[in-house]
Each structure stands twice: as C-alpha cells, then as structure tokens.
Amino acid sequence: MSRVNVQRHVPAVYHQIADFLRAEIVRGTYPAGQPMPSERELCERYTVSLTTVRRAVNILREEGLVTSRRGAPSTVRERPIRSTVVMGRGSKLTCRMPTTTERFAMNIERGVPLVEVRDKSGRVEVFLADRVEILNPEGLAGAATRIMDVA
Amino acid sequence: MSRVNVQRHVPAVYHQIADFLRAEIVRGTYPAGQPMPSERELCERYTVSLTTVRRAVNILREEGLVTSRRGAPSTVRERPIRSTVVMGRGSKLTCRMPTTTERFAMNIERGVPLVEVRDKSGRVEVFLADRVEILNPEGLAGAATRIMDVA
DNA sequence: GAGTATTTGTACGTATGTATC
DNA sequence: GGATACATACGTACAAATACT
C-alpha cells in the first residue's frame, strides 16, 4: 500500500553529532588545518560508542569538510585556492563524484566532486571541484583553459 | 623525516568488494532500478562480515551508483534525465557536496553533488549535479535558465 | 635512530529498531 | 501479521601510520 510517511523522526545520534561538529567547524572552533578532537575524546564527550563517533566524522568527510589519515588526528580541510577556468563557447559541463579507483589514482580526497568540461570537438577536461570556479566570460571565446588564480 | 611511502598495499577487503560490485553494475549485471543482492547474500558470497559488506555498498552509495532505503533492497540508481542549463555571460559556477542537512531538506540522494551558478548580480541558482548539464551557448547571453531537456 | 604512545583503519560479532514487501 | 532488508548502536581486537620522547 502507498502509505505516505508523515512521521517526524528524531535524527540518528551520529547525525546529531555530525551536525554539532559541523556547526563548530563553521563557527571556527577548529580552524582549517588544525586537528579535531580525537575519536576517543569524542566518544567521551558525547558518551557514545566508537562506531557512532566514526559514523559522525564520516559524514563530515563525505561532505569534504574533514580529512583524516591513519595515525594522525583528523583535521578540518583547508579550502584550496580556486583557479578560474574559462568555459569555451559551445562546451558542456557536468559534475559527478569520482569512483574510489579514480580517487586513489588521482589522489583525490573524499567529498570532492569532479567537474568535466567537454568542448565542441569532444575533448574532455577534468577538474577537482574544490579547486576551480568556472567562468562564462563576458568577452571572447576559447577552450576551457585555466587563466588566473583567485582567492 | 619525509619518508615517502613506496609500499604497495593490498586494498582493503571492502574496497575489493566495492570494486567488484561496481564492475558488475557497469557491466549491467544489475540493471538500473533493479535490486542488488541483499547484504546477507553478499556476506555469504564473499565470506565476510556484515560490516565489511555494508562498507563496500556504502562506497557505491557515496559514488552515487547505488541507492538504498530501509526495508527495501538496494538498487542501482537510475540515471536521471539531464536538463540543459544555459550559463549566462559573466556568471560563475562552482560545485560542492551538499551537507547532510541540505540532503534531507531538499531530499537529495547520497553521492549527488550540487552545482551553484552565480550570475553577475550575485543571484545564485542551485542544481542537482546529476540532473543537469551546463551549456555555454554559442549565441546569445542570459541568466542561467533551464531551456530544454535532453536524453 | 629507536622505542613507545597515540590515532585512525580494518574487520569481526551482536542486538535491536524500523520500513518495506 | 510475518518475513525480509536495511539502519542504528553497542562491543572487541588487531593493523598500520603517525607523533612524540
């Protein structure tokens, strides 16, 4: 039967923790490049299991907010400088997540989408989404080319 | 010291399983919209724990390849029809992952990035990355507007 | 450089909740 | 209602990379 779900649910604990940590990050509690509290510490702070804390942090990694390596504390990701890419006339742009294979091969961090620009001749250029800003120029045309850096 | 890591590692089991399932999906073993094998079934097939299987499937969800709801079997995501969006002169485009909050509010599935187009006046339009294709037109200018549908 | 502690990664197990079929 | 399937949450143990002494 098509019983529409009207119920309002209490978000899962790990969602709540992720939301709280995200707010702290946005607020600047853990500045970019600086370590976050360790998982063990978060377990104690919120009185939850390691699993739950890890799922919370995992959400932030998926969003590209946090990066973590084995052995080192998780850190708030520094937002890379964005290059400006000019999109050529008649070219098409799509955006998608990389496969894990691509992530490892191209050393892409989690939570970073790919931007694919295909020009009229069919040539495809791929960019890391957090490193570029695509500009449709006022003036002249040209293939998608990196021309300048911006803050 | 900067000791460069040269070692080649055996990928984690859940990565291998994810790779295998991804290959099957690409090959068309589980057509779009069709159910994937259940987690319990995958446990038996690969002789691994539920945790490991879930992490594998989780990778595919993160890549936007698979969708899953509670109670129903996971399915290979159907690729939505992409609308063509025309990008206006002087507008800028960026791409990022939505926050979980945004995902729930806007009912966005996992693994789907957002495309943000900001026009010269500063107005921002947001699109689901898997639903659009951004076109830089040959001819006229205009704000980012959805004009037509394509396969 | 060596040794140790810390921290995250991987993998297992179990139980229960909840939506779907 | 019952069976199935995924979601949440607890626990444990060990591996591997890093950081510190």
TrEMBL record, chains A, B:
Q: PROSITE patterns annotated for this entry?
A: HTH_GNTR
Q: What residues does the HTH gntR-type domain cover?
A: 11-79
GO annotation, biological process: negative regulation of DNA-templated transcription
Q: Per its UniProt record, what CDD domains does this chain match?
A: WHTH_GntR (cd07377)
Give the residues annotated as coiled coil: none
Does the record bear Ligase in its keywords?
no
Which named protein is this? GntR family transcriptional regulator
**Single GO term (MF):** DNA-binding transcription factor activity
Name the keywords, alphabetized: DNA-binding, Transcription, Transcription regulation
Among SMART domains, the record links this protein to: HTH_GNTR
In terms of Pfam families, this protein maps to: GntR (PF00392)
Q: Which domain of life is it from?
A: Bacteria
